[in-house]
Amino acid sequence: MTVTIKNIEDAAKRIHPYIKRTPVLTCSTLNRITQATLFFKCENFQKAGAFKFRGACNAVFSLSDSEARRGVATHSSGNHAQALALAAKTRGIKAYIVMPSNSAQVKKQAVADYGAAITFCEPGLAAREAALNKVIEETGAVLIHPYDNEQVISGQGTAALEFLDECHDIDIMIAPIGGGGLIAGTAIAVKALSPTTQVIGAEPERVNDAYLSFKKGERVPAPNQHTICDGLLTSVGKITFPIILEKVNDIYTASEQTILNALRYIWERMKIVVEPSAAVTLAIILANPDMFKGKRIGLILSGGNVDIKAIAELL
């Protein structure tokens, strides 16, 4: 299956009864600071606290009844885990989630609250995949990959679909990049419905695998470094990367301090709680002001699942 705008439109109809249509907010102070006109798609207000619920919901409700009876499984540090747990609960099926032991406590608690069976593993992709394979072998559950899944990508693209229905004449659309599900779905939707709009990915400097992969034209593994953007630690996927190469115009990175500055601006000036992985979209504008000056820009604020105490200490 090649993901198309029709898949995204079908996903929008499928998940409409279950998701929230999130608001688009503006901020005159941030427009003044950046000298641009910014429109923020607030997926921090989405169910389960992030855009991930769109993709998880589409994947879960695309399963046949016989597949659904087996339950679903995935590995995730937090947002996809919460999203899949809630989507499974909504359909009335089991969810088995593998989480790294160093996942944020707020995300662990939310996954448990949604009723999923959690298996903790050591941090790192190899440990996560090994633990997940064992869970699937034992339970027979259907794998719902966090980003390398066409139904997930289609679901994530519905955020951009809603945005473009509401906001017109957008010069640039910015989305964060971790595994690439959101930016891939966004790019497919934007290039189909607003072909002149540029699609730009945002990534932390410390975990810049998508940036390096994009420039090289082949996938480069994510460096094993810490970033406050815990939702963006994974490498771009096998399915998402070709879409990114074809449809994304460019990728920019921002330093940890610039991401923290962006986070503070959003919390203090917009009075909303987002996580650092969402604030990276504003951070790349702050880091590259001349590139974005005078433009009408859509930013997807990907989520709001944050450990308040940990972020307060950093700020």
String of helices and strands: HEHEHHEHEHEHEHHEHEHHEHHHEH
CATH C-level label of the largest domain: Alpha Beta
Largest sheet: 6 strands, mixed
Query: How far apart lie the N and C ends?
Result: 44 Å
Structurally, the number of domains stands at 2
Strand content: 15-25%
Q: List unreliable stretches of 5+ residues.
A: none
For this structure, the CATH topology of the largest domain is Rossmann fold
Q: Helicity, in percent?
A: 40-55%
* Strands in their spatial order, largest beta sheet: 1-2-10-7-8-9
Radius of gyration: 18 Å
CATH architecture verdict of the largest domain: 3-Layer(aba) Sandwich
Give the tally of β-strands.
10
User: DSSP helix count?
Assistant: 16
What is the molecular shape?
Answer: globular
Instruction: Give the helix/strand class.
Output: alpha/beta
Integer average pLDDT? 94
Family: Belongs to the serine/threonine dehydratase family.
Pfam families: PALP
Cofactor: pyridoxal 5'-phosphate
GO biological process, one term: D-serine biosynthetic process
